[in-house]
């Protein structure tokens, strides 16, 4: 039985078997169901037609709203990079790892600001799109590489922890008792 013939009120009166046309797929329905719906194999259930998509895209923001969101994103990216810069003077197993950490932390802190400065220069200079595309591609590659290096360094530095990391903490002495 197809769900397309029912209204919203009728949907809530359907039996559990009639609600889902993907029941023959069993446990695989959550994986293959959306794919089959996209290619038109099954009709989209009414429950999904009534749901608002997560990334709707129909909301049109004003210039000031977009500016506030962009500044908030810039601030959050800077704070995220600054948190990694706090490990500037931490002990690392090798000098090379310390330098890699510092360079990557500076890269993820400054790359968003570089993209903003590039945007401002674009307004003034009006260059070709190929130059703009290559600059932003370079920023994206730099940011992704720096994040990957930080992720790898986080795990590789665990091989040489300071001796205090192996001490047992007496938690009961830290918790106030009445």
Write structural notes for this entry.
By secondary structure, this protein is mostly helical. It has 2 domains: 3-49, no CATH class; 63-161. It contains 8 helices and no strands. α5 runs antiparallel to α6 and α6 (95-125) runs antiparallel to α7. The chain starts with 7 loop residues before the first helix and ends with a helix. The model is unreliable at 8-15 (pLDDT under 50).
Q: Top keywords for this entry?
A:
mainly alpha; 2 domains; extended; 178 residues
Brief summary of the model shown:
The protein is built from 8 helices and no strands.
Mind summarizing the main beta sheet? Answer: none
Quote the average pLDDT: 78
Percent helix among the residues? 55-70%
Sum up the overall morphology in one term.
Answer: extended
Number of domains: 2
Number of DSSP strands?
0
SSE pattern, N- to C-terminal? HHHHHHHH
Low-confidence stretches: 8-15
**Rg on CA atoms, Å:** 27 Å
Oligomer: single chain
The assigned structural class equals: mainly alpha
Roughly what fraction of the amino acids lie in strands?
Answer: under 5%
Terminal residue distance? 66 Å
- Count, helices: 8
């Amino acid at each position: 039985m197809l769900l397309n013939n029912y209204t919203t009120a009728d949907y809530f009166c359907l039996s559990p078997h009639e609600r889902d046309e993907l029941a023959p797929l069993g446990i695989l329905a959550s994986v293959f169901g959306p794919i089959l719906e996209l290619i038109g194999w099954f009709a989209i259930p009414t429950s999904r037609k009534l749901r608002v998509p997560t990334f709707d895209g129909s909301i049109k923001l004003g210039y000031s709203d977009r500016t506030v969101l962009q500044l908030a994103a810039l601030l959050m990216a800077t704070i995220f990079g600054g948190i990694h810069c706090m490990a500037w003077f931490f002990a690392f197993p090798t000098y090379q790892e310390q330098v890699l950490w510092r360079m990557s932390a500076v890269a993820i802190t400054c790359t968003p600001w570089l993209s903003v400065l590039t945007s401002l220069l674009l307004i003034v200079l009006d260059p070709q799109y190929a130059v703009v595309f290559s600059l932003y591609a370079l920023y994206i590659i730099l940011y992704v590489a720096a994040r990957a290096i930080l992720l790898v360094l986080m795990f590789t530095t665990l091989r040489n922890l300071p001796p205090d990391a192996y001490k047992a903490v007496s938690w009961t002495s830290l918790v106030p008792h009445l």
